[in-house]
Structures are given as structure tokens and as C-alpha cells.
# Entry
Amino acid sequence: MASVLIVNDQSLQRVGLRMLLTAEPDLTVVGDTASGAEAVRMSAALGPDVVLLGGHRPETDAIETIRRIAHPPRLSAVPRPGPAVPGGQPPRILVLTSTGHEGHAYAALRAGAGGFLLKDATPHELTAAIRVVAAGDAVITPELTRALIDTVRHERAPRPGGRAVGLDAFTERERDVLVAVASGWSNAEIAARLSIAPTTVKSHVSHILAKIGARARVQAVAFAYEYGLVRPAA
# Structure
């Protein structure tokens, strides 16, 4: 069962999303709000698996909301009511964005978002994306992937402490896993194709994220494109 917090400044959209998600037997809505600040508070109090962020809020407000949810202060040390976050990790964030705003994805990615979906996605695509993000995998539509690649080509993300992380920081197996992650494979698919255990895949992904100073799996996708480990399809 994956729990979801809906953040949307359009009241009718919040109602519609709640109706859609509560109709799914393996999804539960723990709350909804129109406010970014309230979303941060509710996220800390309720510990949802996924925060679904949409609406028409200003980009700067959305990015700040993502950053505060993805990087809560002293997460493991603060007791809170409601469902516990597995492993003491902050919620995964799935962002609904409009066509024509694909370029904003990179800023949201760097702030800590774990997936992006266009607002015209079908109900099935949305519920499937929530399940994927809740499981720790990345969701990026082809349109957003192209925008992300273009942005990565022109902007180098700052590394923690100002030190660059190069490909020589990874073992050969970690590179294989990184390429697979950037190619859109799930942990189960990576395990099958590389003939390793799913728990080993999770361990490699955790090591990769730690080395590049990232929290979200989708940030590894940007890193792989940035260093030429994968290339966009023609």
C-alpha cells in the first residue's frame, strides 16, 4: 500500500485526484492541501510515500516546496505521528507539469524531485507513475527526458563541497547499474539482465547516489547523460 499526499492549488483538481487515487486498492490518500508551506508540514507529520505536486503555483514556490520536502531538517531525529517513512527517508516527489514547461524539470530535479509527468497524462499513467516512484524508481516522460538532456548539456550541476565527481569514482558494476538506471530499467529488470540479486541492485544504486551526492534516483539519470554514459535516441 502506497500513501500519497496531494498538493495542488486547484480545489477541483484536488477532489478529482483524491477520487481517482482512493479508487485504487493499493493506494491511499493521507491528505491534500493547496499550500506549499502546509505541504511541508503535512509531509513531515504524515510521512507519505509519495507527494504528488501539481497545480499552477509559481515555479519558485514549487521548487522551494520540493527542496523543503526532499531535504527535511534532522529527519531521523524528529519523532512524528502517522506512518513511519521507510528507512527514515523523506517522501518521493512526483511533479505534474504542463507542456511548454519541460525546462523547469531540471531545477525541480536538483531540488529533489523523483519523477515528472505531464498534466495531460491518463489516469492509468498517473497511478502507474505513483507506484513506480513509491518503489524508488524514476519516472520521466520522453518529452521531459529530451528537455532534461538539453539542459544538462548546457549546465553543470555543482558537486557537494565544490569537488567534481568523475566516472573513476565508480566500480565497473556500478557503471553498469548506472547505465541501466539511466536507460529506464527497474531494479527487477536490472537484476535479471545483469544476473545479480535485486538487493544487490538496490545496494549499488544507494552507493551511486551517495557518490554523486544525490537523494533521488532520477538525479542519477541526469549524471549519466551529463557524462555521456547514455545518449538520447535519435
